[in-house]
Structure formats: structure tokens, C-alpha cells
Amino acid sequence: MLLDTYGRIATDLRVSLTDRCNLRCTYCMPEEGLQWLGKPELLTDDEIVRLVRIAVTLLGVKDVRFTGGEPLLRPGLVGIVERCAALEPRPKLSLTTNGVGLERTAAALHAAGLNRVNVSLDTLRPEVFQALTRRKRHHDVLRGLEAARDAGLTPVKVNGVLIRGVNHDEAPELLAWALGNGYELRFIEQMPLDAQHGWQRSDMVTAQEILASLAARFALTPEPDAARGHAPAEHWLVDGGPYRVGVIASVTRPFCRACDRTRLTADGQIRNCLFAREESDLRGALRSGGSDEEIAESWKVAMWGKKAGSGLDDPSFLQPERPMSAIGG
Q1: Are 130 and 123 in contact (CB under 8 A)?
Q2: What's the pLDDT tens digit per position in 297-325?
Q3: What is the pLDDT of residues 161-172, one digit of tens each?
Q4: Phi, psi of 132, rounded to the nearest 5 degrees
Q5: Which pTM was predicted?
Q6: Which among 29, 49, 73, 190 is placed 20 to 30 Å from 208, CA to CA?
Q7: CA-to-CA distance for 99 and 140, rounded, in angstroms?
Q8: CB neighbours of 215 closer than 8 A, spacing ≥ 6?
């Protein structure tokens, strides 16, 4: 198993399939985009499936989430999902997406074995969406969400980031909309993972502010800590339930002590923390003929050195060189 020196066991694998994205969110990357990885640098479909198989069969991983960049841009996505769904023991499979291409792919992904999706949507206002993403694709995301729900990729979770002066006032509106459509909404504090390294704590809408805004319109009852488990989100029942809302307070209320994640980048690097500044290369081992057992051992060594926490509250904190689009969510 993937154990670290603090006794945490990683059972949740995040697999980035590409660093490319078809949006240009202001809190993620510049308008002109980034220098994308070349095809030789990317893991092939076979290499991705092999690493997932090693994680599941040799290292105790139970949950696999495909991320990006935008994973729907990966040409072989449906086939990757289908092959991973055939593994024994079968992992739970999910996908984090911006939703732009989900309308045309949701049914095929469900048929291939995908269990559910997380869709990023920060606003219900098309003009704000265009300002945030620099693209006119708001309606495509809404249709993608509906397609995911209709295809059975449930629960459909919606991830929203609030930014001061942009969409900071939309929390109650977003929650009412999510409740009306049967989606589970989770707010995420904006994190220092932008390519521009322009993140400022003062621009971030905190978990405390989000909850205060929601409480002005809804009755929120906190779920017990035991119900949270290893999940990053703290949850509240809305108006007595059964629906709930989540808040991921990565900055102000970090959950590092219960972290159960390991991350694989699109170019085959293991990251034992989202905010790590070091990576461990598995692509080299794959391509030099390493056995499954040797690769598993390298993976275990990478996780053993995981730090106690992200260090976000430490004055000496340095943002990772790679942005979120290259790391994978």
C-alpha cells in the first residue's frame, strides 16, 4: 500500500490525461494559454492503463479520478475508462471536467464504466462566465451537466470557485440552482496554483464568508466529522436535508492529516501532494522496461516522503512551479 511516514494511506489516485484545456480561466492560466506538453512526453493510453492497474492491484488504490487540463480533450478517453473499469478489483471511476464537451460524451463514458463526474462551474451568469473563462461556452456547460445527469453519471457534483469582485455574491444563487437540478454543489477556496503566480489571499473568498452568505438564505446543519472521512469537503445539510452543500477550504481549513491522495501527471510523474515542489518519475521506469513490482516500489518510495501538510500557512510557502492544469486536479 501507499503509506507515508505519518501513517496516511493513499487509496485515491488522480490521473491527469492532458495538460491542455479549451478554456482560459483567469485564475488558472493566461489568455494565450501555455506551452503544452509534446506528444512524446505524454503517457500513452497503454501506459496510463498499466499504471492504474499497478495502483489498483499492487498498491491498494480504490478510487481513480481522471483529470486534466481538460480530460475530455484526450482522444482515447472512453477506451481508457473501459479498460480501467475491467480491472479486478474494480476501482470507482470518476472524472473532473469543465463540462464543455460533456453533452456529446456523457452517454459513452457511462457505458464504458465511468461512475460519476465533477463539473467546474463558477457562475450562472453568461457574461461573468465569459469574463472568467475568456470563452462563450456557458450554455455548453449547462447542457453537459444535464447530459451527465440523464446518462446516470450521478451524483453529479458541481465545483465552484468564488473570486472577490467577480462572482463573490453568487453562492446562494448557485446553491438554489443546484438544488433545483439535483446537483451536489461544492465551493472551493481559490488556491495558489495559477500559471501566472498572481494568486493573492485577499482575492480569495474564504469558507467562512461562503457559509455566512449561504446561511442568510438557507438553514445549514453541519454533518458530523465522522461522515467526512477522507473527503476534502466539509458538508452541511441544506434546510434539514436530504440535499447538502460542501466547502473545500484548502487554504483556511486544510485537511492534510486525512489526505489519501496520490497524483499522476500526464507526463508520468508522481506527486504526493497537490502543492509538492518535487516529483518522482515513473515514465522513465515504464519506458526502460521496469517490471510492475519495480514500478510499484518506486511509487511507494515517492509516497513515503510525503510532508505533513501543504505548508500554505507557512510564511516560507512557495507555490509549485507547475500550475493546476499541468498537475491535475
Answers
A1: no
A2: 999 999 999 999 887 767 677 887 887 88
A3: 999 999 999 999
A4: -75, -40
A5: 0.94
A6: 29
A7: 7
A8: none
Q: What is the CATH number of the domain that holds 285?
A: 3.20.20.70
- Contact between 45 and 297 (Cβ < 8 Å): no
223 secondary structure, DSSP code:
P
Per the DSSP assignment, residues forming a β-bridge with 118 are 96, 157
Q: How far is CA 17 from CA 11, 67, 129, in A?
A: 19, 6, 25
- The angle subtended at Cα 171 by Cα 239 and Cα 176, nearest 5°, is 45
Which cell numbers hold the place of 206? 474564504
As a whole number of angstroms, the distance between CA 124 and CA 103 comes to 18
Residue-wise pLDDT tens digits, 38-57: 999 999 999 999 999 999 99
Helix, strand, or coil here: 35? coil
Apex 40 CA angle, 39 and 43, nearest 5? 80
* Residue 107: closest CA among 140, 73, 70, 152: 152
| 282, 299 contact by CB (below 8 A) | yes
The number of folded domains in the chain is 1
Query: What is the number of other CB atoms lying within 10 angstroms of the CB of residue 321?
Result: 11
Pull the grid cell for residue 80: 481508457
Give the range of the structural domain holding residue 138, as residue numbers without chain letter: 2-327
Q: Which three cell numbers stand for residue 61?
A: 488504490
- Rounded to an integer, what distance in angstroms lies between the CA atom of residue 120 and that of residue 22? 13
Read off the DSSP letter of residue 211.
H
> What whole-number distance in Å separates Cα of residue 131 and Cα of residue 133?
6
Please give the Cα distance from 51 to 209 (Å, whole number).
40
